Amino acid sequence: MNRATSARSTRASRAGNGARTFNELRLESVRRDFGTVNALRDLTLTIQRGQFVALLGPSGCGKSTALNCIAGLLPVTGGSIWLDDKRIDTKRAEERGFGMVFQNYALFPHMTVAKNIGFGLRMRSVPSAEIERRVGEALRLVRLIEHAEKLPGQLSGGQQQRVAIARAIVIEPPLVLMDEPLSNLDAKLRLEMRQEIRRIHAGLGSTTIYVTHDQEEALSLADRIVVLRDGMIRQVGTPAELYGAPSHLDVADFMGYRNRIAGKIVRDSQGRAYVEIDGAVIEGSLRSEPKGDHVIAAIRPDDLVPTRDVKQGIEAAIEAIEYRGREFHGLARTPAGAELHFSSSVALAIGAPVRLAADPKQVLIFDAEDA
């Protein structure tokens, strides 16, 4: 290697390593409009170096739009994006140098795995020896050394996704951005790839922003979860905080509180509430201050179970029951027409009456207007 090539290699290596030394990414009142549609509304968020942050929400909530604005694939309509003291929303995507993993992999079918991974480095005119070294490291990290000379079409879906991840991280980006990368995989592969993504993130010590509509993915992968709705942040917290203490009914919905049952408060005290539902009274914890008597009780199906205590539970009739390995999951309906999703350790007959109850610690009470 001559002196000029060596110098370029050193600069490329330093640039890559230095990119990870940023302290925080900040979105300050970011807005993105599509004509009269507000896809993002005054989005303000700080992400610290080394964190794995999941943007979670339903289709159309703005999570992919936010990711594309960070990546530079979409310009912001208002606000600003900063990497420490450097404003980056005015820079082109290639100037930001972020790694991006797409839902459809976007691999070149005529290139080998190794060439796919090294493509971004070649576009940056990184010396050949440095490309070979970095590609080798990336292949080892994603456990694809033996597949280096294969074409993408010769790989499984999970292996192709690992190639896409390797291509994103080989440029040593300050941020790795992932847009629903597992949605095209089957259930088994999704579980395997979750573990792989988390392992790769930990091995790199990098910062990752991950878009998903799957709360299980967000809970298993992220250090922090940002729940979006209608282009706005609804709640930010650790997986444990969002799972156990969602602050809004729509956040509870995304955290698995499938039962949302209308009722009336009969009394409340010190954050606890007693709610009448179809003649039964259940206890739960208040998550938002009710403006009147009408509230919504939110309960996970796993926490709502049959009881023989005639003084407890909500009366209903079983409409469906299905076996899910260790337990049965069912659907029941109250006389007033409310649907209840519940779990049972034994099979129950369709049409049979049942009383369903939950531990008060697992019942959240929201103001009805929060719906």
Task: Walk me through what this model shows.
- The strands form four sheets. The chain has a six-stranded mixed sheet, sandwiched between helices. A five-stranded mixed barrel has the order 11-12-13-20-14.
- It has helices at 3-18, 63-71, 93-96, 113-123, 128-141, 157-169, 187-204, 215-221, 239-244, 249-254; strands at 24-34, 37-48, 52-56, 78-83, 86-87, 99-101, 175-179, 207-212, 224-229, 232-237, 259-269, 272-277, 280-286, 294-299, 305-306, 314-323, 328-333, 339-344, 353-357, 364-367.
- It has 371 residues and is an alpha+beta fold.
Unreliably modeled segments: 1-19
Number of helices: 10
Strand content: 25-35%
Biggest sheet, spatial arrangement of strands:
6-7-8-3-9-10
The helix fraction, in percent, is 25-40%
Q: How large, in whole angstroms, is the Cα Rg?
A: 25 Å
Oligomer: single chain
Q: How many E strands?
A: 20
How far from one another are the termini?
Answer: 66 Å
What would the average pLDDT be, to the nearest integer? 90
Instruction: Characterize the largest beta sheet: strand count, sense, and whether it forms a barrel.
Output: 6 strands, mixed
Decide which structural class fits the backbone: alpha+beta
Helix and strand sequence: HEEEHEEHEHHHEHEHEEHHEEEEEEEEEE
Shape: globular
